[in-house]
Amino acid sequence: MRAQSRRRPRAPDEPGGPDAAWSIDELTRRLAAHHYIADRPLAVAMYLALTLGRPLLLEGEAGVGKTELASTLAAALDARFIRLQCYEGLDVTHAVYEWNYARQLLEIRLQEASGRLNPDAGTASLFRDELLIKRPLLQAIEAAGEGPVVLLIDEIDRADEEFEGYLLEFLAGYQVTIPELGTIRAAKPPVVVLTSNRTRELHDALKRRCLYCWIDFPSYEKEHRIILERMPHVPAALAAQAARFVQELRRAELYKTAGVSETLDWVAALVALDQHELDARVVDDTLGILLKHQDDILAVRGERAAAMTGRARLEAGRAG
User: Fold this and answer.
1) pTM of the shown model
2) How large is the angle between the packed helices 236-251 and 220-230, nearest 10 degrees?
3) Residue 123 has pLDDT above 70, yes or no
4) CB 5 within 8 Å of CB 43
5) How far apart are CA 1 and CA 3, in angstroms?
6) CA end-to-end span of the chain
7) Taking residues 111-123, what's their average pLDDT?
8) Are 132 and 100 in contact (CB under 8 A)?
9) d(C-alpha 317, C-alpha 237), whole Å
10) Among 200, 218, 164, 211, which residue's Cα sits nearest to residue 58?
11) What pLDDT is stored for residue 12 in this prediction?
12) Which residue, 29, 45, 49, 26, is CA-closest to 37?
């Protein structure tokens, strides 16, 4: 059954996305207006995440546009964008909150100097909101009551399993408990997008709490359109040939495949070099923008790159 293309207006106390009743097509158009091209399955996943108030987990290779989607969605919703970059060793003090120990120590010294230091009353004065350093998860909870918020939890697969376990509790109730202050709940849940490059497998418990979408490398047609949307000044022949070249490059057995972000960087470099069409010599000179491992560059550079360049020019000319 095809997904419902319209939804009813949202009640004020319901979770999720924009107040207006957007269609899937309208959401796609709003993303395109901010130069993000979303195909139908991805648009449906985003629509349902907004409608149902569920987190959206995006998986795919690095460079396919997962992070870009979250920031573009925030722009399309006219929402505040908050990003938590995950890494090994990430803990609550860097993801949720920590106390400003330097200011607390200063408060103690000021109280001592003024003779106002009271061990009982002083403790309460040291744990107040203005002495709290708010990290992305707490920021998202508090900001959601002021207006729409998109919270990006980026590269969750790089975080430790302990932090992934903490997220289960956070996503279940959108609340944070601070022992000295109590529990802080979101007046309205933020829109949450999680991304993963699959450097490790995520737990099923986290996946069950999220809607899921895999973002693959784009087809030639989509990548060509992305180039033209993001860089409309690019010569038409160069855009078509570059997209053809990258499509063939991804079929090669390489250590690291070039993503869309590398494609855009490469095309920008070719334009900066005043190229109107692909040239084998310039392709050799700029392979380091597409490929980030020396073994991959050596495997492609030279005759292989020249042959791929020739085929890209020929195929783009035929499609012409």
Assistant:
1) 0.85
2) 140
3) no
4) no
5) 6
6) 37
7) 64
8) yes
9) 8
10) 211
11) 34
12) 29
Lowest mean pLDDT among 5-9, 18-22, 52-56: 5-9
DSSP annotation string for the chain: -PPPS--PPPPTT--SS-SS---HHHHHHHHHHTT----HHHHHHHHHHHHHT--EEEE-STTSSHHHHHHHHHHHHT-EEEEEE--TT--HHHHTEEE-HHHHHHHHHHHHHHT---HHHHHHHHSSGGGEEE-HHHHHHHHTTTS-EEEEEETGGGS-HHHHHHHHHHHHH-EEEETTTEEEE-SSPPEEEEEE--SSPPPHHHHHTSEEEE-PPPPHHHHHHHHHHH-TTS-HHHHHHHHHHHHHHHHS--SS---HHHHHHHHHHHHHTT-SS--HHHHHHHHHHH--SHHHHHHHTTHHHHHHHHHHHHHHHHH-
Amino acid 128 reads: R
Tokens of 172: 């279940």
**Six-digit token string for 239:** 């855009």
SS3 letters across 190-252: CEEEEEECCCCCCCHHHHHCCEEEECCCCCHHHHHHHHHHHCCCCCHHHHHHHHHHHHHHHHC
Backbone Cα Rg of the chain: 24
Q: Which are the contacts of 180, defined by CB distance < 8 A and separation ≥ 6?
A: 99, 127
Dist CA 32 CA 18 (whole Å): 17
